Structures are given as structure tokens and as C-alpha cells.
Amino acid sequence: MKEIIAYEMSFDRALEYQNDISCVPFQERYWNAYRKIYNECFYEMRKALEVEPVNFYSDYSQIKDKVNDIFLYLQNGVIAGAVSCYGNEIDDLIVAKSFQRQGIGQKLLLWGMNRIKEQGCEEIILHVAEWNQNAAKLYLKNGFRIKKKERVR
Question: What is the pLDDT of residues 10-29, one digit of tens each?
């Protein structure tokens, strides 16, 4: 079993960014597309880190208690990406493969940060696997700092 190291990252400064995208709340009709994108986005990491099941989402019941905190960014009615905001935590920031390398990940990150700040939270946190260096670099570039490095497994 492979070791998994994760960073807890924190952002606790003022956010001087206005959203230039709009996200919509998750609706059940998006489930199949969301499941596919989510599983594709995390497949390589879960496989490399030997996390089972490799395709995490398989049934709507796994997500139904989370849907009020998941927001979708749509382009022409198609999910380009999504971000989850649980209290003061950003989680599951994903971008569909066909929309990657267009800056959508950063826009979703900033959208989520604004949403959390608008809820009155001073500190925003997120967790990222050390394996996912692209995501870690994105978060550091946008003002997050590593608060803690921990062995998850």
C-alpha cells in the first residue's frame, strides 16, 4: 500500500477578486455527467496512490447529502468544471478534460474563495495530496500557504 501525504492549505487574507464566471447549484439531472468528470479527474491520482475504488462515484446516494454545497460551471449547458464549498473548506475542484488548460481551475478556485468569504469566513482551507503537484501549485499561486503536511496513509 502506497504512502499518501497531504497538505492542509490555508488562505486568511482579504480577497481582492471579483468573479468573472457564474456557477449554478448542483441539480440531480447533472449527476451522470458530474460522476464521469469527477471520476476522470481523480482516476490517475487514485490509481497511482492505490486508492480503491479508483472510480469513486458510482451511485447518486454517495452524493445526495453533499449536493447543496456543489457548484457547477457550465459552458453551453455542459459541465466545464465544479467546486464544492463546505463551510470554510474548498473541496473537489474539478475541470472536465476537454476544458483543461484554459484557466477554468483558477476561476473556479477564486469563485469558491469568494463564496466562502461572502459567508463571513475569515480563513479558507483545503486539502490536497502531495501527488497532485499541479493543484498544489495553483493553490500556492493564489495565496494559499501550507499549514500542515501530514501522512494520511
Answer: 999 998 888 889 999 999 99
pTM score: 0.95
Q: Which grid coordinates are listed for 11? A: 488562505
Give the span between the Cα atoms of 77 and 127, in whole angstroms. 29
- Read off the pLDDT of residues 76-92 as tens digits, 9 standing for 90 and up: 999 999 999 999 999 99
Environment class of 98 (CB within 10 Å of its CB; exposed 0-12, middle 13-18, buried 19+): exposed
CB neighbours of residue 120 within 10 Å: 7
**CA-based Rg of the chain, rounded to a whole angstrom?**
15
Q: 82 - beta bridge partners?
A: 72, 94
Cα(114)–Cα(3) distance, integer angstroms: 33
